[in-house]
Amino acid sequence: MTSLAHFEAVAGSLKLPGKAVIDGERVPSASGKTFVNITPRNGRVLNHVAQCDAADVESAVRSARRAFEDGRWRKLHYRDKKRVLFKLAEIMEREAETLAVLESLDVGKPITNALQGDIPSAIRSLRYYAEALDKIYGEVGPEAPDRFSFAVHEPLGVIGAIVPWNFPLHMAMWKVAPALAMGNSIILKPAEQSPLTALKLGELALEAGLPPGVLNVLPGFGEEAGKALALHGDVDMIAFTGSGAVGKLLMQYSGQSNLKRVSLELGGKSPHIIFADCPDLDKAATEAAWGVFYNSGQVCTAGSRLLVQEPIADEFLARLLAVARKIVAGDPLEPATMSGAMASEEQMMTALRYIEIAKSEGGALTLGGRRVRADSGGFYVEPTIIDRVQPENTLAREEVFGPVLAVTRFKSADDAVRIANDTNYGLAAGLWTTNITLAHRAAREIRAGLVWINGWDSCDITMPFGGFKQSGFGRDRSLHALYKYSDFKSVSITL
Q1: In terms of DSSP bridges, do strands 139-140 and 185-189 run parallel, antiparallel, or are they unpaired?
Q2: How many other C-beta atoms are found inside a 10 Å radius of the C-beta of residue 222?
Q3: Distance between CA 179 and CA 216 in Å, rounded?
Q4: Residues 328-341 as b or e (16 or more Cβ within 10 Å = b)
Q5: Residue 265: active-site member
Q6: Count of helix runs (H) and strand runs (E) in the chain
Q7: What is the greatest pairwise CA distance in the chain?
Q8: Are residues 333 and 41 in contact, defined by beta-carbon separation less than 8 angstroms?
Q9: pTM of the predicted structure, to 2 decimals
């Protein structure tokens, strides 16, 4: 572990990327406009970034389509594709500290989390799909003796990847890596709150030997660059992670344009259920706290609804509070910091608003509830726990995307499952029990794409990630993610 002074020095020495990457070149926006990129660490201006719009989308799509059609990447031998992607992973490892500092500055993420979590995870995702790209097999059909039929996976074409600000590089790589592995061209549109690591990735990919036009990076606002990308008739797919409201718009844009495919990974209001026979209350309390307060609660799978069975509710809450009180907001560039800033002033104010709503609806403020470190100029909210939240309360139904935990008490296992499913979302869920029958039954009956038993967020790149209901559809991670970036073609030969 190095020091705050070290990371401040690194930050001060960096030339922050601000230009788009189109057709292998770093370019300003076509209009010449830029937007101000503010760090939530202290509310100060980091840099000015190209504000791309429909004109830039047009240039990027032309570049991506040209690259796809001439086959500079699509037709490359799989060994050569692997070599380029592994080279990119090596370069990212070389630049890991730079990438981590960029991420920490951009979104207020604790530097230790970025260095030990986000950046290594992004690199592992890239290596996983680089290794998998030559293991994509087709099928041979049963046929009469005078016919031979087979089916093959082919890349879709031009992919628009629109990614969120909470895990900027990590989430980008969940989409960029499998799309590249399948031979597609990609236009990456980072969130306006977090453009830096995406722009840096565009530069590093060119250094690694990815041909121009295969990965274009367009910073800008969703209502300009994002909308134009989703409406473009020569984009074959939009892969999106973000809010449900934007996800619904993207579905409309697909219908208004070329019926492009849309893959949506949206929000969540994930239940974390503690049954009375929980095998380890201390471990469960630790996982429940970090399951919602990690990354300042800005996690789509955050266990933001804690359901505790009544006989152990008071005891469990005491253990939870003991853990949560140690999670103190601090300077993101300080290696000892466990909880950093929220990504923007808007997100901070949203969290504070939900806390006030929860109190007005009868919730019991048990911990936190305030903005902290205001004198820094940054955007910090202390870990907050609201007890006695009823299933019909706002805090139990709407996604906060902040460090705010709603605690609800339940009587029976049937009550827990009913409350867990009483939501528009269905991304993740967790439960703690020693009863194997209960564990299996509850896991099958809870409507969520990810269910964790006696742990939280206990899976990795090898397992599919995605939700039910209004948490979206389509899967990131695992080999399943490869196939969504492809078409399946049947070929029959008369002999």
Answers
A1: unpaired
A2: 18
A3: 13
A4: ebbbbbbbebbbbb
A5: yes
A6: 16, 22
A7: 80
A8: yes
A9: 0.96
AA identity, residue 300 = C
The full set of domain ranges for the chain reads 7-266+472-491, 271-460
**Alpha helices, H only, 110-153:** 111-113, 119-132
CA distance 388 to 406: 8
Determine the Cα–Cα distance for residues 317 and 323; give it in Å rounded to an integer: 10
Identify the burial level of 226 via C-beta atoms within 10 angstroms of its C-beta, where 0-12 means exposed, 13-18 middle and 19 or more buried.
buried
Catalytic-role residue among 103, 278, 287, 300: 300
CATH class of 7-266+472-491: alpha beta
- Dihedral angle at the C-alpha atoms of 167, 168, 172, 173, nearest 10 degrees? -70
Starting from the edge strand earliest in sequence, which strands make up the sheet with 158-162, in order? Answer: 25-27, 20-22, 215-217, 185-189, 158-162, 237-241, 261-265, 472-473
Token digits for 366? 């048990």
Question: How far is Cα 198 from Cα 169, in angstroms, rounded to an integer?
Answer: 6
Q: What is the dihedral of CA 34, 191, 25, 82, to 10 degrees?
A: 170
In 294-433, DSSP assigns E strands to 305-309, 364-367, 371-372, 380-381, 384-387, 404-410, 428-432
H or E segment at 207? helix 196-208
Pick from 175, 98, 78: nearest CA to 461 = 175
Along the 495 residues of the chain, how does pLDDT read in single tens digits?
A: 689 999 999 999 999 999 999 999 999 999 999 999 999 999 999 999 999 999 999 999 999 999 999 999 999 999 999 999 999 999 999 999 999 999 999 999 999 999 999 999 999 999 999 999 999 999 999 988 999 999 999 999 999 999 999 999 999 999 999 999 999 999 999 999 999 999 999 999 999 999 999 999 999 999 999 999 999 999 999 999 999 999 999 999 999 999 999 999 999 999 999 999 999 999 999 999 999 999 999 999 999 999 999 999 999 999 999 999 999 999 999 999 999 999 999 999 999 999 999 999 999 999 999 999 999 999 999 999 999 999 999 999 999 999 999 999 999 999 999 999 999 999 999 999 999 999 999 999 999 999 999 999 988 999 999 999 999 999 999 999 999 999 999 999 999
The three state secondary structure string of 234-253 is: CCCEEEEECCHHHHHHHHHH
| Domain 271-460 superfamily per CATH | Aldehyde Dehydrogenase; Chain A, domain 2 (3.40.309.10)
315 is catalytic: no
Q: Are 250 and 262 in contact (CB under 8 A)?
A: yes
Residue with tokens 């290594």, as numbered in its chain: 120
- Contact in structure between 123 and 89 (CB atoms under 8 Å): yes
Q: Which of 95, 103, 192, 265 is catalytic?
A: 265
- Roughly how many angstroms between the first and final C-alpha of the chain, as a whole number? 67
User: Which residues does residue 161 pair with via DSSP β-bridges, in sequence order?
Assistant: 188, 239
Q: Is residue 414 classed as helix, strand or coil in its secondary structure? A: helix
- Using the structure block, give the residue that is written with the tokens 């140690």: 326
